[in-house]
């Protein structure tokens, strides 16, 4: 199907007409703006750190796609265009906060200090995530749409009952943030999670990255109103933020997390952004969306926008840009080498973590598999002996 056959999608236009309340601190032209309720005051080194994190996230995305095309990964879900939404929100988190990502939220995971090889190991089929959720306070990727949202609410209710909310102790009070896309809002788990969080005033921030497309379905086929408007019906505040503005995302998420930690309850944040690439490397977006639409959003690129601002403020110079480019190259080289060096898991290891405790059925299936595998190995060895003798 060609662009012409699809016809223009009006999802962005429909929602754009209702975005007068969108929080924006940095326009697409890179010019700083003010907002009466949301502001940030960062030191130059903090601003440069935001740029660095976004640049490295984009490089991770590029390397993930390249490795998949080379056969080193089974699949790759890209995040290009969503760097500001992920880096800004991740920067707002405190050490004790808990992060529940979906499968595209690489920036939120990197923000917790996790080795990027441990992210790509999932898509290489080596493991389900090479980090310790208890230590890193970031939970495993979920490939089932919206499946992370209810566990996030449950965790929020748990820390609430543990007395880690509303104490006034900045090192104890804990918030939970869960990431999901616009497509996830059409799932039943999303409605259930919002309802439970609101009823029990759980300390949860729902960070919806509205990237306009749930695979090939535009947001206009999921909701007739902006997604953050659903929050009112669920019983919580909803905030619309420019998801390509890292400063605005940081300010809005920081306020929502603080509200959650202090006992104010949940908040729904809609980060209005765009998925510049394919849904995954198994997808061809040219079959369902216009190239003109993608080009229009390219003018709102979150990294270019932030660079323009930093240059205008005299914070970013050629020397830092060169150092960052060199760091990104080194980052990519280490990532490629680390992924390719990952050892293949033993086939029997698939049974190891099916349940927390030994389960009779799983143990029986494991024994059956081992017997079949050993028989296979004997047959292969016998064929090799015959081939060598001939």
Please describe what this structure looks like:
The structure is a single chain. The chain is an alpha/beta fold and about 400 residues long. The protein folds into two domains: about 5-340, Rossmann fold, CATH 3.40.50.970; about 345-390. The protein is about 45% helix and about 10% strand. It contains 15 helices and seven strands. It has helices at about 5, 10-15, 45-70, 85-90, 105-110, 115-125, 135, 150-160, 190-200, 230-235, 245-260, 290-300, 300-310, 320-340, 360-390, and strands at about 100, 175-180, 205-210, 215, 215-220, 240, 265-270. The strands form two sheets. The protein has a five-stranded parallel β-sheet, sandwiched between helices. A two-stranded antiparallel sheet has the order 4-5. Helix 3 (about 45-70) runs antiparallel to helix 13 and helix 6 crosses helix 14 (about 320-340). It starts with a helix and ends with a helix. Its EC number is 1.2.4.1. It is an enzyme of class 1 (oxidoreductase).
